[in-house]
């Protein structure tokens, strides 16, 4: 298909985005550039290329963003201890801004007039993608097929695929599949039996974690080393950001760590139930809090805890590139240079135990906390301290 118009589609190679690709060709008479961001999801590059070529695509771009994803997106939210609604570690939320940024880069490089995504009209991802698109390419048109096409059901999509010779996976015939999002940080599963919150999650949906009941009967021990607030080593061995998270996923996953079953409040105003797996991320956030406990002062730690709910909500809602998030990130990272040392963890059947914390920081004083008598802490000042705060109790 020859056309002066170009559209960059976020393309996975699967059924839905293949249907979108064909639909874009038909409706807009444009050349489609198939763009895939490799952020650690299970990816079949040969399948992506084969399916795109079958639909007449000439430019197929698969970009490895794994290290960027971990270093510039995951590590900052670990430093901020970002947890949405007390449970969700933002595994999907944090991936979309990066994909949007690089998709716009590709659009500008090839002078495309539009970008497109496969997010549904009920979900959060459409917001996250489109806020990212706007930040980096405000003049580039956004096409969201799920909000404008006339395909209303899974049956409509299957029939459309049949008419255009698009391969239909066997497990997608008939009933809708589970909705799965996968990247190096997490896997989320939604839909089908999970839509009813009274139903328990079937074991077969879990991809990154072993059930705690089937986890090893002996604990695993791991030491994570931190420098300037970021993890750099596992058991003394320095690893790249993506390799480090891969290793943590393996260790935590086999020990049944990182599962959550939640009902969340979506940005657009509806509730959804999902099962999320974030094994390595769960280790990191626990270890990071542990190393901060012996390296940061009370006021800094409490300020971070105070802003965290808003910080997490901004990321969840797609405001990664907002002034508000940038401002909070500065607070998060104000004293990150002090966060150095290592934390040893014990992993056992879904549980994480802090075994030890080691640092050269003097924020934690053994002399002051010791039960032995010493002159480093003046107890005579405590009475004045208490009397001062008694005044705050008076109405």
Structure description:
With 395 residues, the chain is of the alpha/beta class. The chain folds into two domains: 6-66 and 88-176, HUPs (Rossmann fold); 186-296 and 335-358, Alpha-Beta Complex (Argininosuccinate synthetase, chain A, domain 2), CATH 3.90.1260. Helices cover 38% and strands 19% of the residues. The strands form three sheets. It has a five-stranded parallel sheet, sandwiched between helices. A five-stranded antiparallel sheet has the order 10-9-8-13-14, covered by helices on one side. The model has no long low-confidence stretch (mean pLDDT 93).
Provide tags for this entry.
13 helices; 5-stranded antiparallel sheet; Rossmann fold; 5-stranded parallel sheet; 395 residues
